[in-house]
Design goal:
CATH architecture of one domain: 3-Layer(aba) Sandwich
Radius of gyration: 17 Å
Mean pLDDT: 88
Structural class: alpha/beta
Strand content: 25-35%
CATH class of one domain: Alpha Beta
Helix content: 25-40%
Strand order of the largest sheet: 5-9-8-6-10
CATH topology of one domain: Rossmann fold
Order of helices and strands: EHEEEHEEHEHEHEHEHH
Number of helices: 8
Distance between the termini: 10 Å
Largest sheet: 5 strands, mixed, barrel
Length: 256
């Protein structure tokens, strides 16, 4: 069974539409959809936002289902000018930081290498190339809060060997390695390095889901953010479309 895990419904809903869903389960804060695409068993997991929800969700998936491979998908912020909205990032190395407080204060601290995905990445690279799907390679870093400022994203990209930032992949990669399950990640750029986004950490509920009521109230009480929110929503959908198309090509391949 192939496990596809994303944090929010926008990351997984497009893929879910192409799956014949046989079973839906709520385990903890996560939602699990078990189904088929052609003859392949697929488990789609909506984990919630952040490393802790993702870690719990993938741990439950490995314990309860016969998982043969794990694909971490979702959005990422670009850290280099070469990455633009909806670009696909096929990561080779996944990093995290044990001292995020210092990192977010622009202090140069060491990063931990969580995974080197060169072997699995080459297999996925071959599938995408054969299907004429454009992608870019690079390294990503997983952090526990939204990298919302242009200044921080520019600093991160200039001071570390990373081109994208997101919030879940490192924790998923750790569980995959611990259970000896093949793993790779695919991310689509939802905000460029030159784009500031508003901080969403306070707008999530205990399940790691975006609280739409809280988000709506926040935007209405900060009307200057409305143009930025509308642009971010448009970019979200562009990134989701690119991500969905690529993931479907991968799971439909005979090489996975």
């Amino acid at each position: 069974m192939i496990c596809i895990i994303g944090a929010v419904k926008e990351e997984v809903s497009g893929i879910k539409q192409h799956i014949t869903i046989k079973e839906k389960k709520h385990i903890g804060a996560a939602t699990f959809y078990k189904g088929l695409i052609k003859s392949k068993e697929i488990l789609i997991v909506r984990s919630g936002v952040g490393q802790s929800p993702a870690q719990r969700a993938v741990s439950d998936a490995v314990k309860r289902f016969n998982i043969k491979s794990i694909i971490s998908i979702g959005f990422a912020g670009g850290l280099v000018p070469e990455l633009i909205i909806s670009d696909l990032i096929l990561p080779e190395k996944i990093y995290c930081c044990e001292d995020e407080e210092s990192l977010f204060r622009f202090k140069k601290v060491s990063l931990s290498l969580v995974a080197n995905l060169s072997d699995d990445r080459d297999r996925i690279k071959k599938i995408l190339t054969e299907n004429k799907t454009k992608f870019k390679t690079g390294n990503i870093i997983s952090v526990n809060r939204v990298a919302d400022s242009v200044k921080f994203k520019e600093w991160l990209g200039k001071n570390y060997p990373v081109s994208g930032v997101e919030m879940e992949t490192a924790s998923i990669a750790k569980i995959a390695a611990r259970n000896d399950v093949p793993f790779f990640s695919l991310r689509a750029v939802s905000d460029e390095v030159s784009h500031a986004i508003f901080q969403t950490n306070k707008l999530t509920n205990k399940k790691g889901e975006i609280n739409r009521l809280a988000a709506g109230y926040y935007v209405l009480s900060h009307p200057f953010l409305i143009p930025r929110v509308l642009e971010f929503k448009k970019n979200f959908y562009k990134a989701a479309k690119t991500l969905t198309e690529a993931v479907l090509k991968i799971i439909n391949s005979n090489d996975i």
